[in-house]
Amino acid sequence: MSPFKGQTGLKRILNASGYSLDGLRAAFTGEAAFRQLVLLNVILIPLSFFLNVSRVEQALLIAVCMLALIVELLNSAVEAAIDRISLERHPLSKNAKDMGSAAQFVALSMIALVWAVILL
Question: Which domains does the chain carry?
Answer without folding.
Answer: 32-119 (1.10.287.3610)
